[in-house]
Amino acid sequence: MHTLLVGDHGQRRGWDRYYPYRWFTDPASRAVFPEEDWDRLGRRHVADLRATAARRAGDADVLELVARLRSASAEFDRLWDEHRVAVRLSDTKRILHPQVGLIDIVCETLLTPNAAQRLLVYQPRPGTDAAEKLDLLRVIGTQRLAPADRLD
Question: What does pTM read for this prediction?
Answer without folding.
Answer: 0.83
